[in-house]
Amino acid sequence: MSDLANALDDVQDASQPESFGAALSQLSDLFGERFSTSHALREQHAHTTTWLKNQPPDAVIFALSTEEVAKAVRICSAHHVPIIPFGTGSSLEGHVNAPSGGVSIDLSRMDKVLEINGEDLDCRVEAGVTRKTLNSYIRDTGLFFPIDPGADASLGGMAATRASGTNAVRYGTMKDAVLGLTVVTADGRIIRTGGRARKSSAGYDLTRLFVGSEGTLGIITELTLRLFGQPEAISGGVCPFPDVQSACNAVITTIQMGLPVARIELMDSLQVKACNAYSKLELAETPTLFLEFHGSEANVREQSETFSAIAEEMGGGPFDWATVAEERSKLWAARHDAYWAGKSLKPDAQVMVTDVCVPISRLADCVSATAEDIRAEGFLAPIVGHVGDGNFHVQILVNLDDPEEKRRTEAFVERLAIRAIDMGGTCTGEHGVGQGKQKYLRREHGEALDVMLALKQALDPGNVMNPGKILPQS
């Protein structure tokens, strides 16, 4: 039996509307071999790294152009079939799940760098280009793209989830990096937002509306992005502290003094232990800050010395800093592999990863309270974070098949989210809402959530764009 015949049987068995079958038939005709209903491929195109239940789509299509995406959206919209955009599948809150079935539109083959404007420090790329691919492409130009989440995510997916990374404290997040977008809307129109000008007062800022919308308002197919000149000199290294509180206080002082740190990352003692084993490091197994400074030779030396004095005042140190690229690269590779290092602490466990972000002045309070909560629960749960902007992550290693352990874990995640919100922060600094954090939005946004619902209704009245994500009733 053919893939399409199997798909139509699956649709009928699932009691989906008959229109699903008609849509799948049209998409099969349009995409040919780039249309699939393979069970394994459909499961792969639901989440791959989250704790949430896998909810596969009814079919997967691989688009090669914005025009193909628009044609697929028009077919799906006409038949009221849900549409789930897919980049690399590295998101952590069930963004690519298909709770109502539907079609996953995979953009990974839209992987062309379309334009580099070196004099203007910008570029235009298709949504499937990954951050590492872009930086490899522009390496010889003296430019780089600084946003670096742990995974080698697609740039379209990074914009859709408003991603961040280790460089955010100096270079900002995706909301700061995106100048303009090409978006396919829920009715299949192709629109372009923003542009290459560095500022504009012309109309609503639609670019910022779609950045962070997680595919619920439209599908991002192209991006115009800011680039930066590679710094003349880079200094970086590690600094141990006796406890998390003193490490966080050093971060707070560093930021409040206006020290232009490019990266400042926290690992608690358990995360350091995991990275030592996984990435073959030899760090003291105590709370540790990873730092990096960008600038001239004189500037990075002065900044490093200033931070050394701050660390010493907070009871930490010594700050072991170096300018050798190979040494820095090994440290930052270990930081980006923190998820896998943490998972290796208990390979047979399942992983629940969560993140929050608080005002920098409340960072020490929030991290310390969270560490105490972890100890009280007896969880194996390393903490790591982009603490220069108040954002940190907890990776809880548990048996989610045990109902009691799952209940305790979800209760911990809820306490953490509420703690951050009550401190003036947010339930997610960079992972996004997806399915996992919808229930906290009313507490965080109040009546503003109703405005989000109104925007969703206006732009996607049929609720076909990634339904079941962000908004509680979508």
Layout of strands and helices, then pairs:
Blueprint: H1 3-13, H2 18-31, E1 35-36, H3 39-44, E2 59-62, H4 66-78, E3 83-86, E4 103-106, E5 113-117, E6 122-126, H5 131-138, E7 143-144, H6 155-160, H7 168-171, H8 174-177, E8 178-185, E9 190-194, H9 206-210, E10 218-226, E11 228-229, E12 233-240, H10 244-256, E13 261-267, H11 269-279, E14 288-295, H12 297-313, E15 320-322, H13 325-336, H14 338-343, E16 350-357, H15 363-377, E17 383-386, E18 391-398, H16 403-422, H17 441-445, H18 448-459
Overview of this protein structure:
It is a single chain. With 474 residues, the protein is an alpha+beta fold. 38% of the residues lie in helices and 20% in strands. The strands form four sheets. A seven-stranded antiparallel β-sheet has the order 15-12-14-13-17-18-16, with helices on both faces. A five-stranded antiparallel β-sheet has the order 5-6-10-8-9. The radius of gyration is 23 Å and the shape is globular.
Structural class computed from helices and strand pairing: alpha+beta
Strand content: 15-25%
Largest sheet: 7 strands, antiparallel
Q: What's the total count of β strands?
A: 18
Number of helices: 18
Radius of gyration: 23 Å
Detail the poorly predicted runs: 1-5, 7-15
User: What share of residues is helical?
Assistant: 25-40%
C-alpha geometry: globular
Strand order of the largest sheet: 15-12-14-13-17-18-16
Q: What distance separates the N and C termini? A: 35 Å
Mean pLDDT: 92
